Amino acid sequence: MVLQSLVNVIFIVENMGYMGLFILMTLESLSLPIPSEVILPFTGYLIYIGRLSLIPALIDSVIASLIGSLILYLLSYYVGYSIVLKLGKYVGISRRHLDAAEQWFNKYGGVSVVLAKFIPGIRALISIPAGVARMNVWLFMLYTTVGSTIWNIVLIYIGLSLGPAWETGLTLVSRYIDYLALALIAVVIVLVIAARKHWVKYA
Fold first, then answer.
1. Which residues of the chain are modeled with pLDDT < 50?
2. Where are the domains of the chain?
């Protein structure tokens, strides 16, 4: 299954370029089992060999992440948790992961939309409790964009920096995904604290 997923991602992005990247990242953000941990390092490799360009690929991936997340948010906003869960079983949305996303949102509020982008299994699903809670849509979009941009940059950079050995990055990401998530969460928290101090200082 993992090998087939890898082959499919490579085929789509390699043959469809930016459009393939956009489609896959949109579907990933809708909580379909399409791992960004494969899509983005391979995208980095395609940038390395000159098939894609860094800035357009990054913008493409972030917009796709935002659109997919926004669709899931709006669906949850208008139909509610129980119906989303019923529909979700057809695309593999797990109640366990959905409950975890809800706990994250209840505990950390809006900022959880940023932090969850670094957590496999919760990354896309955080849109559901945000929608059910009727979080401000503009704030949701802002947080989604920030979290997606950080995550996408890191994974694209892994593939870009490793070049022909980009598949090694998949092993590293899967092995150290928890540490990577914690590191990125720590970075976001530090940035939030620094920003708040700045606002207080100049308020």
1. 1-3, 198-203
2. 2-202
